[in-house]
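Researcher: I'm preparing a figure for a lab meeting and need a structural model of a single chain. I don't have an experimental structure, so a prediction will have to do for now. The sequence is pasted below. Please return the structure as tokens so I can convert it later.
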Amino acid sequence: MLYNEQAVRANIRNREGKRVYYLGKRDQLTSGARDFLTRERIEILPADQARPERYRLLGGGYVEEKPEHMTHLNGEFLVPKDHPRILFRGKMDTLESELILCQLADKSLEAPVGEILELARQIIRREVLDEPMETGKLCGLTEEEQRKRSHFPQDYYGQPHFMPQASDGLAIARLNRARCAAREAELAAVTALRDREGNPTRPDILRALNRMSSMLYILMVQKKAAGTA
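Model: Understood. Here is the structure written out token by token.
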């Protein structure tokens, strides 16, 4: 069987305090999955070295076999596949695919959209591992600079706010679709990443998602202003 990065992330195990991934003799990894393991310094071990284990359920208790309707929330717990955090991760997968299509639509978008794509992958990683998001510039802009440009595009690009249409071209259409996917992921995150009182548990991830959709809109404005969509 061929395992992609998403499958690998869901099946990382802990062995003596270190993250490991067990790979069967007849199983293979996609280049993206292998790159992920190398980048994260996760050791690949033969599957026959895996110790028998029970699967822990989020609501309490254990199961000996992983049911088909359940998946890994992290390396420790199983949850139903319609769990809000799993649905959020699915939205992030969709967003990643839309960003790649943006890069294919226009070569000038490869670098800026590549930064946004890397941010999306960081969000997934840090949500799964419960690590804080790092803050910094996105496409050369600080959070405050980005906010001003997305709110007042006329002042910075000579292009007022606009509603995209077919005549704007494929690149802007793809960027807009990715922007919508980012907004859907953000809404899914609001539901998935909150406590029982409704307070956000990962405001850093919500802020990063908001920055992504705003940056995609800025790229749309830039393409529209340049007249090269």
